[in-house]
Amino acid sequence: MLTELDTIQTEALAAIRDVAEETALEAARVGFLGKKGRLTVAGAGMRDVPAERKKDVGQKLNEVRTAITSALEEKSAELIARRDAAAFASIDPTLPGRPLPQGGLHPLTLVLDEAVRILRRMGFALAEGPEIESEWHCFDALNTPADHPARNETDTFYFENGKLLRTHTSSVQIRTMEKEIPPVRIIAPGSAFRRDEIDATHLSAFHQLEGLYVDRGVSLADLKGTLEYFFREIFGSKTEVRFRPHFFPFTEPSFEVDLKLHAAGRAAKWIEIAGCGMVDPAVFTEVGAKRGDAAYDPDSVTGFAFGMGLDRLAMIMYGIPDLRLLIENELRFLEQFRG
Ligand code: DAH
Fold first, then answer.
1. pTM (2 decimals)?
2. How many domains does the chain contain in total?
3. Residue from 202, 250, 254, 310 to probe ligand 1 pocket by mutation (most atoms less than 8 Å from CB)
4. Among 160, 245, 265, 251, which residue's Cα sits nearest to residue 214?
5. CB distance 207 to 131 below 8 Å
6. Which of 38, 55, 89 is the C-terminal boundary of a domain?
7. Looking at ligand 1, which atom is closest to the CA of residue 173?
8. Cα(305) to centroid(ligand 1), Å
9. pLDDT (tens digit, 9 = 90+) per residue, 122-149?
10. In degrees, to the nearest 5, what angle opens at C-alpha 280 toward C-alphas 279 and 283?
11. Cα–Cα–Cα angle for 330, 335, 339, nearest 5°?
12. Domain residues for 121?
């Protein structure tokens, strides 16, 4: 039996050595190690080996199986390596790669990120509120009288349940004061909605950035300093900032903010950019009544607020002539902002 096992080993190794493809290798494996393979069949002969020789023969059987198995593995690795090499031979790894189309950030996102970066550095935290708002948060709490034109059904999208699409992000001022006590220093970027005819300077869904700072002793000088710093950071240190008296129901006094940019290729003219003012004590009183505490007692805290159009900021920043470009997602437009 030992001789027979030797013969099987010699023949198996020779057969495996001569194999040139993977199917033939598999056939060789089955032929020697499979259920009816020669070594398996020979192994069954162990039954007839006298007890005193079983150990030697068993050992030999194992040696032969190990030898054949490792020959099979080696050959298999060799065949795979040969197949890979053949595949690689048809590829030129020195060719330049194919560029993958890469996206970029939308100009609105770029402007927003920059604005938020500057304001966060100044200590403002991000806040948010719902786009579907109650009339109270959007108007009443902001001291807006019942007959104010902004409340008109022709100007505002109302739902049947009396809720509305917020017409400005100023509602987030109220949302914040409802749940947080002073000092609060927040910015709230977000969408706002008005029933405007869409044209080059109006969209029915647009974007604003709201700001609110309430604490003891916040003054108009703080407001002016904050916005001047902000606009100079974003548009350059030579930017002129002008505060023009105006009216908003929720601030007193109120201002509109104009900018004059001094940059190459820009006509130096005043452009309106934001609304702002000192929070009207009536707003604090309304919030205090809702909260049921004295956290916003108008005799002990003051605050400033501001709001600006982000779409408009992007138009100015990038010289975009028509707001509709911001929502059309025309690739030839968007590709110009790819970083
Ligand atoms: N909410 C105003 C608007 O949409 C903008 C505004 C003006 C916001 C004055 C303010 C503010 O916070 O103080 O036109």
1. 0.74
2. 2
3. 250
4. 251
5. no
6. 89
7. 12
8. 8
9. 999 999 999 999 999 999 999 999 988 8
10. 95
11. 145
12. 107-337
